[in-house]
Design brief:
6% of the residues lie in helices and 38% in strands. The protein is mainly beta and 140 residues long.
Length: 140
């Protein structure tokens, strides 16, 4: 036995979906066509973040740690321009700014945290801030 389905001409259409996605804010990790890919692991002491930044020079990377938020930004530059008499048939490499920001569950100590960049991999050793015990207030 087949079940009947009501036809609703005003049900969600492709146009509704398009308009809804148009007004949705863009996420920061998709700010460029090729976002920064990261791996984050946790230990008792802190976090280890490995970020892929191929084709980026060390001087073009900016890392900011504020509280428990980590921001990685970089500028990917074109290595060399084609010769004037050459025609570019296809160019799939991305050139421009890349940006990634994420929040970790614990505040970070930016004074003891370290960053290292080698072979296109940015490695951040982010140290957790020691938890401060609450202070008992005396009532006067």
């Amino acid at each position: 036995m087949t079940s009947l389905q009501l036809y609703d001409p005003f049900a969600e259409t492709a146009v509704d979906s398009l308009l809804r996605s148009f007004f949705r804010p863009e996420r920061s990790d998709r700010a460029s066509p090729h976002g920064i890919r990261v791996d984050v692991s946790e230990s008792d002491r802190g976090y280890l973040v490995r970020a892929e930044l191929p084709g980026v020079k060390k001087d073009e990377i900016h890392v900011a740690v504020e509280g428990n938020q980590v921001t990685i930004a970089a500028e990917v530059k074109r290595a060399e321009l084609p010769a004037k008499d050459a025609r570019v048939l296809r160019s799939e490499r991305y050139y421009g700014s890349v940006y990634r920001s994420f929040t970790l569950p614990v505040e970070l100590d930016d004074t003891t945290s370290q960053a290292k960049f080698e072979d296109g991999i940015l490695e951040l050793e982010l140290v957790k801030k020691p938890a401060t015990a609450g202070r008992k207030l005396t009532i006067q």
